[in-house]
């Protein structure tokens, strides 16, 4: 149980208690989705605080959890000289905590929670696997409806509607890039019209059963230029090389380098400016980050994207993204 791991960390570091406000963190620790809640974790027990709207639901879903009105949060708080917290909370909330405990030392516990969330439970793995499978289905269904004359916005709307009808909506705003717009990594769909001949880059992800999915694919140009063919082949090689190397024990930095070396050797090193990938779970970007800046060691149960890309401003862009699960011996491609 993740909460017990946090309690062990609190004991080992002489931290009296932790206040956890982040919605995704609370969901990962309790299975309860609530937009106004706080988890008060002490060394031997914990309390769930929320408002009047959600208290009956929490009691119904988790009868084993002690739930209290969030108005009583600080009156229920134990005497504490060291308090664990998430720096991602708002400034206003942090100042409330400082006012309630003016002499307390506040300890950042965000990395502890991120590390716990990075290794998925079997239930989370099953849900993400289903979400990604549906994501692929929706992509295939959507592109069959695309036709020349449509704008990027219209194509993105087809995908969004399917996600609303068949899932819980988008995990992030769907990216549809026609032609040279694909050189913008996170291009926002606009009124650019697809003539049916240009390439299209599509990055999509849905939410299902509380978890996210992620996928990037390319509709190839009808008559791709030699440059486009070369770029696409290099990105595909980088993607497959990283997937082949992904396994327990490899570092995030090393895996990023494997893909980056393929792209650099082909002469496009400066055109791959983002990290190789990121964790996916209750949020679309989670730990671990596959980047040259991180030495995180991959473990079984981690789910990450492999998404190398090459972007030539004003000309073209290609990104190929798959979602993989790190297994005991290697990895499983979920896309």
**Distance N terminus to C terminus?**
29 Å
Oligomer: single chain
Q: pLDDT under 50 segments (min length 5)?
A: none
Main pleated sheet? 6 strands, mixed
| Shape estimate | globular
The neighbouring-strand order within the major sheet is 4-3-2-1-5-6
Question: Nearest-angstrom radius of gyration?
Answer: 22 Å
Average of per-residue pLDDT values: 96
Q: Tally the helices: what do you get?
A: 9
Give a quick set of tags describing it.
335 residues, alpha+beta, 6-stranded mixed beta sheet, 3-stranded antiparallel beta sheet, 18 strands
Please explain how this structure is put together.
The protein is an alpha+beta fold. The chain is 35% helix and 21% strand. α1 packs antiparallel against α5, α6 crosses α7 (152-166) and α8 packs antiparallel against α9. The longest helix is centred in the middle third of the chain and has 22 residues, at 122-143. The two termini are 29 Å apart.
